[in-house]
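agent: user wants the full assembly modeled, not chains individually. Plan: 1) parse entity lines 2) check alphabet per entity 3) run joint structure prediction 4) return tokens. Steps 1-2 passed, three entities, 1352 residues total. Proceeding.
--- entities ---
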Amino acid sequence: MVGESMNDLDYLRLSKPQKFALKMKKFFAGLPARLLGALKGLLMWFVNLFKGIGSFICDLVTTYIHGDWKTKVSYTVMGFGSMARGQWLRGILFFVFQTVFNLYVWFFGAGYLSKLGTLGTVETVKKGRVTVYGDNSFLILLYGVLTIFFVVAFIYTWYVNVKQNKMSEKILKSGKKLKSAKDDMASLLDNQFHKTLLAIPTLGVTVFTILPIIFMILVAFTNYDNQHQPPGKLFTWVGTANFETLLASPDNKVNFDVTSTTAESAALTITAKNGDILTVNTADVAAAEAAEALTAAADTEFTMVEQADGTYQFEVFSEAGESVSFVGKDLLTVKTPSFSYTFKQVLLWTLIWAFFATFLNYFLGMLVAIMINKKGIKFKKLWRTILVMTIAIPQFISLLYVSKMFAADGLINGMLMNWGWISQPLPFWTDPTWARVTIIGINIWIGIPYLMLIATGILMNIPADLYESARIDGANAFQTYMKITLPYMLFVTGPYLLTSFTGNINNFNVIFLLSQGKPLGLDLAGNAGTTDLLITWLYKMTVTDSNYKLAAVMGILVFVVCAVINLVVYNFIPSVKNEEDFQ
Amino acid sequence: MANDMNIQEVAEKAPRLRSKKGHERRVNASIYAILIVMSIIWLCPFVFLVLQSFRGESGGQVAYVIPKQWTLDNYRFLFEGVAFSLKALVKDVPAIILTVVTNAIGVLGMVKFLTRKPKNPFEKTSGNIKGALLVFGVLLLINVMRCVDSTNCDFVQWFMNTLTIALFCAVIQTIMVLSVSYTLSRMRFKGRKLIMNVVLVLGMFPGFLTMIVLYYLLKMMGLTQAGAVPGLILISCASSGMGYYISKGFFDTIPKSLDESARIDGATRFQVFLKIIMPMAKPIVIYTILMAFMGPWGDYVFASYVAFGHKASYNVAVGLYRWVNTNDYQGYFTRFCAGGVLVAIPITVLFMALQKYYVEGVTGGAVKG
Amino acid sequence: MKKFLALVLCMMMALSLVSANAEAFSGEIKIWVAEATVEFTKAQVEAFKAANPDYANMTVVVEPVGEGDAASNMLTDVEAGADIFGFAQDQLNRLVAAGALVDVLPENAEIVAATNDAGSVSAVKMGDVMYAYPMTSDNGYFMYYDKSVVTDPTNMEAVLADCEKAGKNVYFEINSGWYQTAFFFGAGCTLTYSTDDSGNLIAMDCDYASENGVKALKSMIKLAKSPAHVNGSSASNATNLGAIIDGTWDAAAVQAILGDNYAAVKLPTIDGYQLGGFGGFKMLGVKPQTDEAKLAACDALALYLTSGEVQAARFDAVGWGPSNLEAQQSEGVKADVALSALADQLQYCVGQGQYPGEYWTLATALGDDILAEKYDAYTDEQLLEVMTTFQTTAGGYIAK
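--- prediction returned ---
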């Protein structure tokens, strides 16, 4: 005990940077151990899973062997055992469920389940001018997944049925009575109350959240886009091709194409591996044509080296060892937008935006709350009310109006021009950097009232004598803030900051209503704009392009990003929590 | 000796105290200045919006704020074609049944509130006037809504649609969220941690991903186009149980000993929930109702998907967005402003009245790790 | 025996023919048209039913859905969409690819090709197949101007000078791929994409990277430099209207602003060449049907709603410029200031074909760069480089 308190005292005596360095050292030193721990945990989870499955099967077999005839029949006719032992309500419920399930699969589910592997093969044809619709891949996938859910639910219910038989046998053998229907109903309001309360929400979440998400995850592995739209066309499984499109750099075939020749020069269009298109002129016509032939015949690579006189030395070589080289001038490179580049750009802006939106609002909101809360400021309620009105007005109306205000022919530009301060309208929504700053700025306008409310609520809880003693010790406002207010706020609102950060990553409303992702970027594929977040780009892909497969991949990637951030921060926060104590 | 030192210290500090006062006044003055500027900036867009809604001359956004011609035409346009008939309450058998049932429930509720016995000897009146007034207000609202015939008036129809959705969502979502958060907070059962983790993971998927699937699910049930309003209610309420985080935080602060002593006295969990916990949870209940009510007013994306071109089932967000953004509606900008004002007023009033509960909910529940 | 059989067969054939004719459609047809024409369309449908007693029993529901919304709704869910819907030609590509349009009945296609203007006919075709019925030819643009401010509307430099002097603005949305073509097409450049019968892009024909392209680019830079220029095209946002490059949909709004000084004319010349542009069209499409009788009914109804008389009546009712050759010669159309200006301008215009979505982004980026004064000090060679980059990028969109 004495040893520990000595360490604490030593710790408190360290200066701030030393404390921080210590924390960092601890975090990174502990990192390998934590990773190892996480891996071990994963391994154990798998082992437990297999153990679980093994014991499950074991259980089933032994129950069958040791059970009486009522139990054995229950394996095929669900609910029989319960009914035979007098628990008629449970028995009927089980039996009805089994019948419904059988009917469903027989008439409806089996057909879709069988086509799940191919997602439909019968194409839509036209007989004369009348269209005869074939398979609908979308419905096949949807109902197929629904059927799989049903099957899983059925297996689980069947297992519960078997288990209940086993338990009922045990209870009867030990001489006790089984629960009657009346007991069941009563316990639903008491011991099993959680089941009652959770039944409907769970059903709602399963059908309307889990099912769609699983469906969309599966879509990410198909080629469902605007060229493969049901009911007119089919789509099918393509594996991980979509992930490659979005994540990997494009790997095109290098192609040299002679577009025009004169006696002394040839113009070439070159397709590089990463999709870039280059145009170049060369005086060596023969070499140009040889290069064209070589790239058409085999897989090639090429290099280009800039010479001192501004021309480029090109060399094309194939795997077999053939090569052609020539000197080219007037080089022009056109970067064709690729999805992987766009994805990286949009992801970067999303993270930057989330960072600024969260922390800027947080600190400014806190500042405003402190200002209003200060002793000596009157009409506290009035200031707070005015600011809070922004929350009350539906965001949709205020944002639409404000976005029109900042347009090139809108209120702000109009007023500034009328007052003669500017001559050309300010490019709020047409210049990428301006647009980004404007969005962050307007988001401050929206976000500060929320943060101010939260900060006010928390600030009121800080014991006033802490401030008193600080004042007596001669601390000025800034020191008070840094040493008392800020640490307390950070401690209490740590998790809130995290939720707010992930929330801002998915903050659709602000971007969509203000700028719709514009201005569009020339180097961005898929109609992405320079102020697009991943989620608004996803919306555009879904609604404007019907490119559901890429949208699904993006959804999965957004999830991965959020999950990673959450994991990292959750592991970081406890270390902060433990050290930061101010008693 | 200590006293001498104290007096000395005070003497040293005295001159600083005096200049501190001046310093403090300056700081306060600058803070007032900042607050005034902020208030102006914060209120500006709404003041402009209201002013623009009275603008008589045509056109979209203009460079000046005060209208040259003041007119109520924009508001008149919003209400053109609306009819009000009390007969709608009794026009056919289902309508009569609905009228009788809703009014009976309402009157019963009012009576119950008015005759409620005081909980403890310190309460003076033996009735809850506020509660009775609230029930009366809701009853009146429902009856008025049913009497309004808005088939010829777009805006009022959209407003009624949105109001209907908001009222249903407020009730149903609150029940679902409270059920889930109470269960997860109070009860320990197998699978509790699993449920919490699953909900956490599900929440990280972006919402729009599943729009198309939800559209087809609703279509399967016939709840799109003409049936868009029930469809939207279903979608909003079905997954609302996932938003239990804040309420659970609040329930966690209620001591478990209350539960236990009640159960020792023989109450079932259901009775504990209804009679003991619920009355104490008034702030969080009101907070949940408020958030659930405010949600549907801004739902543009999904509502336009589900309504699928059927104008009569648009909600306010979809309708107003069409007015301000599509080429079909030239010159509707001032009407958008008027519509926006009419939508904003009730919500703002409601929010300001219940502001206290909102603050309690957010600070109490959201920030407790 | 044989004779008897033959007689029976003949009677059966005759009966089936008769019954086929009498087998009229009596189900429901849903139509989506823009809000302004809903009442008009309903009246026309009644007239159609009166003129064709076969179809007197069918129910027709007309819903107000704007052209943009109609296209995007059909793309979301063809099955729940309308049977007949109005849309603008830029969506033709996507609608055909998504299976939302059935080809036009060959007999009807002949009638349509013979009675509508060439631009609209080519706009409804994909490859050689016709997929929709042309309805309007008024989706092009021209110039409205204030008679009291602009003295010489034939010359852009004069228009700019007049407006600068009077402190008024010239609205020209140069960062829109649609309005931008006025410069490039006027200067003699081409930019078209060709598609196959299923709507996929197969080739591009573009010569922006040329002297003409540079000429057009320089004109745009010159226009953007003028203090009178404002980048925009919506009359309701035009607070200081001297002249505006806009279309017939804004005629009422411009008239309201300018009052007696309202005037419209074809686009002026700039730097010595006449500004050109796109001709745009609206059309009615029919959704693929599974029922033969319903398909026949939809075909007949769509043909009727886009016939000459109805197009002329529609112009009288809501002012939409017809694509039907006869209707275009009517007195009402000729007297309409805006439509005459448009008709005048159309001879310099190219019918808008199919363009990939990325093209519009590319054009907006070019326009934005001009507005940001990025090219103000560029030499001709540098401008040529800019155009070459543009052309090469535009060509890259086919590879997808």
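agent: reporting back. Chain B has three domains: 2-53, 83-149, 165-366. Chain B touches chain C through 25 residues (CB under 8 Å).
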